[in-house]
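2024-03-11 09:14:02 INFO receiving multi-entity request
2024-03-11 09:14:02 INFO entity count = two
2024-03-11 09:14:03 INFO echoing inputs for audit
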Amino acid sequence: MTPGLANTVAIAGVGNTEFSRAAGRSELQLACEAIMGALDDADLSAGDVDGLVSYTIDPVEETELVRSIGFNEITWSSRVPYGGAGSMGVLLHAASAIASGAADVVVAYRAIRARSGATRFGAAKTAPSPTSAHSGTTAMQWCMPFGLLTPASWMSLNSTRYMHQYGVSSADFGRAVVQLRAYAATNPAAWGFERPITLDDHQDSRWIAEPCIRLLDCCQETDGSVAAVMTSRERATDLSDAPVAIASASGAGLFEQEIASDHYGPDLAVMEGSVALARQLFERSGYRRDQVDVAMIYDAFSPILLMQLEALGFCEFGEAKNFIADGNLGLDGALPCNTNGGLIGEGYIHGLNLVLEAVRQLRGEAVNQVDGARTALVTASRTGAILVRD
Amino acid sequence: MCPHCHSLAVEVVTLSGRGTLYSYAILHHPQNPVFDYPVLAGLVDLEEGVRMVSNLTGVEPAEVQIGMPLVVSFEPTARDGTVPVFRPALRAPSGR
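2024-03-11 09:21:47 INFO inference complete, emitting structure
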């Protein structure tokens, strides 16, 4: 239990740029725009901010942000490793800093040009990129010499094993993608806006990694930035009539676990990090799975969405395909999931856009709104949080 | 350091070169000119208990099956190096 953290910190504001494939401006500028949007949303100013947190692989330097936005005195800053799998860790870091008194107002940000920038995320690279340090993978050493050059290729080995172990087909993954694209089709911010797909479209899309990952199973390569401003729940309540409290935030780094190239645990059909994460989140918050009104689950590739649904305990192992086929990820289902279209349908701000969607759901402002949503789960493989609104 | 006993004593041993296929993927896109496509990627459980990423050779993509017995083969790679890849073994590996 972490009684010193639970519900004492809230997300007071969120902001974002447009999501595109060619932002036409630097990551620094994108971050500035998203952060100013979040501060405006929170009714705070740059001078109120004393904490910063991002991903280790984010290219925007704190010093440049301070100079550009005009922060006065940053007393605390942090970076979360593990790439996208660490994305919800920014909530844990910020909440820990605020709960401990190390900072009063923390900005979490991610700025990325995954399509037009120096590092195109899905490209077939044969050398580490400048931002790959601390991303939690040994793939550069142990995968690249054999032609496994992309996150899709690294995760495909786990995905094929998952299919083999539980009798899952490409069409089973496709049904999840059809749902995500249906959400994206009504989300004007999404790459997939007004472009729903059928299961046939999915099955007709070309193989990236056979027999598990087709083109339409992949998240987007997106340019853009998102930001969230956090402060004490007390202060957030003074600022806004709709603060979103952090009931629980945690991370799970297990023995032998890697990011994306997670090839060395005993059973690769089970995402053990997510099993541990869910245990921590629900035990620490006191919330139960059946209280989750809406979930945001890191869908870099569709197979890991199914695997996380099982690991997080929303269905039995091997049952995600049936859970999805029964419509449970839809607005009328047991677990409306990735209602912005997810990273596959909306875009890929390295997972942090899922936090924004959770906040909008809890405020009642989502495009695909879950009626009366009060509790949201946001997870990215090994980091996650439960967000609540009173 | 050994994560089980915390020993720092390192010893080089020769492995049998035998293993079984734990998982695989046939990689089509994106492509890099250094490699021939499709790339047959395999995750191989070696007889000695180590798992490694490698390539499969001497097998058609449609014939690749999880659990198939494999044996090591060394193929040339960049800069006059060699890499261990795996081809189907005629019989199941012993000892596991």
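2024-03-11 09:21:48 INFO post-check: The mean pLDDT of chain B is 92.
2024-03-11 09:21:48 INFO post-check: The beta strands of chain B are 18-27, 39-46, 51-55, 69-76, 82-88.
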